[in-house]
Fold:
Amino acid sequence: MPIREELEKRFKETGKVDTSKLNSNEPIEAYTHVVADEGAYDQAQIVTLRIRTETGKRTVIVKLLRTDKMADLYEAIDPYVEFTDKVYELRSKFPNRGYSKDEGDDLEKLGLAPSSALVIHTML
Structure:
């Protein structure tokens, strides 16, 4: 089975991914508690993160609150990780820094608010 079909099948099983966008360059918006009820939050409290997948083929948009933790971001990104058999880390390019799932600070204290671009980096 070709890899694209296998990924699409896996994404459909999660029920969290819009599979119509898998084969396009259009950004995919991850489903989070903020997206579910965006009108309930002050826009100044929302952090918008653009996450590039490991292969660079897709961009996932994640909206969270400034007070959310990296664990929340990892949970939102997990369905979009392309290489499920590898450990990954979210990294920023400027400054070049890795963010682990167990970071204690919130997104604002980590310098990711109001918006940031990160990449999924697979670990060897």
